[in-house]
Design goal:
This protein is α+β, with helices and mostly antiparallel strands. Strands 2-1-3-4 form a four-stranded antiparallel beta sheet. The radius of gyration is 17 Å and the shape is globular. It starts with a helix and ends with a strand.
Length: about 130
């Protein structure tokens, strides 16, 4: 007979394996889509709000942004975590779909209260802590 402890250990092992697969495929698909549309980087903030006007505070992605040209990327890097609403993607954009499909895994992949930048080329993904509501 299998014990509860054994079942929970197996669950955690499978959960970790799935998270590792998601991590591998997630960034690969982001990079492929960035190359397809001719963009260098996509970035977003992800966090659990501290206060949500009485509603549950749940971890989510808060805005996915695609700079309009290379100068914008340099400005983002120089100014740290500056975000411009004018770069926000529409919900029907493939990058949005990829990111929101993986949203349940993003906290485990990158953390909570962070700014994430994924590049089309071989540069490492940038993950920096960010202040939020």
């Amino acid at each position: 007979m299998t014990t509860l402890i054994e079942i929970l250990a197996q669950y955690e092992e499978e959960k970790q394996k799935t998270a590792e697969k998601v991590a591998e495929v997630f960034e690969k698909e982001i990079k492929e889509e960035l190359k397809r549309i001719g963009k260098e980087v996509v970035y977003w903030k992800q966090y659990t709000p501290h206060f949500n006007d009485g509603d549950p505070c749940v971890f989510t992605v808060h805005g996915i942004y695609l700079p309009t040209d290379d100068d914008d990327v340099a400005e983002i890097k120089q100014d740290g975590l500056m975000l411009a609403e004018t770069y926000s993607l529409g919900l029907d954009h493939k990058l949005d779909n990829i990111i929101y499909l993986a949203e349940n895994f993003l906290q485990e992949l990158y953390g909570d209260g962070v700014f994430v930048m994924v590049y089309a080329d071989d540069r490492e993904t940038v993950v920096e802590e960010v202040e939020h509501d």
